[in-house]
Amino acid sequence: MLHFNINDDQIDYMKSSFKILVAALISTCIFISTSCSKTLEKKVYSGVPAQNFWQTPEQIAAGVAPAYQALTQIPDDAVHDLNEITGGEIIAPTRGSDWDDNGEWKALWEHTWKPGLGILNDAWSEIFAGISQCNFILSVVDSLPQKPANIANIDAELKVLRDYFYFLIMDMYGNVPLVTDYNTDPNSVTNSSRKDVFNYLVNDLKENVPLLTPTKDATSYGRLTKWAGYMLLAKLYLNAEVYTGEQQYANCIAACDSIINSGKYSLGDYYADFAIDNQGSTENIFVVPFDKVYISGNYWELETLPYQLGEKYGLIGTPWNGFCSTFDYYNQFDDADSRKKMFLVGQQYDNSGNEIIDLQTGLPLKISPYVNEFSSAADTFRFAGVRNIKYTPEPGTGDEDLIHAQSNDMVLFRYADALLMKAEAETRLNSNLGDAVSLVNLVRERAFGNASHDWKSQDLTFPNLLAERQREFAWEFWARNDAIRFGTFGNARTPEKKKDPDAHLELFPIPAPQIASNPNLKQNPGY
Question: What are the two backbone dihedrals, phi and then psi, of residue 107, each rounded to the nearest 5 degrees?
Answer without folding.
Answer: -65, -40
